Amino acid sequence: MAESDTTAAVNVLLADDHPAVRYGLRRGFEWASDITIVAEASSARQAIEQAQQIRPQVAIVDVQFPDSSGIEVCQQIVKHCPETAVLILTAFDWDVYLVRAWTAGAAGFILKTVELDKLIETVRQVAKGKRLFTPDQLQYIWAWRREITQRLQRLTLREQEVLRLLAGGYTNPEIAKELVVTLKTVETHISRILAKLELPSRREVIAWARRTHALTED
Fold this sequence. Notes:
alpha/beta, Arc Repressor Mutant, subunit A
């Protein structure tokens, strides 16, 4: 079904909190003699620990776990195990998860509905150091980033500072103390941020900043 195009075995870590998904993937990879599932993880913490201990060539990571996100798992694996390629496997369609996967250093972003042959070949390719995002995915990523950049450019540097603190959970008095300004000045900045970002409330602004990671350095 899926012929091997290399003699070198590819060691893979499966990380998904659903046992049925891990079972299905494990059975599917049995068709590929050059791919070996060397470990499985059912939580984000376990996935990070397994990756650091085993150092697999590829880690297939679900986008969400009860204890954390697959994006955070990806970031930690990329940071501590740079030799491991991370594939984000998700039931979600393209959205902020795709953008965050790219930013986190993932080697690819694959829907769980992908055909087995394509998944197997993707694992082989990312194990060789390739980063596999489709042209459509890349177009979506660039469009998203461009929209975020354009929105942020509406804000002054001080307004961006206030937005960053808001996203970090700071209250108005805490922001005033951090920036050494009056409470009235903070309230004015927040009002201007809402207007410039065309968002109806403080809550929406905070949600947007956290969801998009707008002020996170790549």
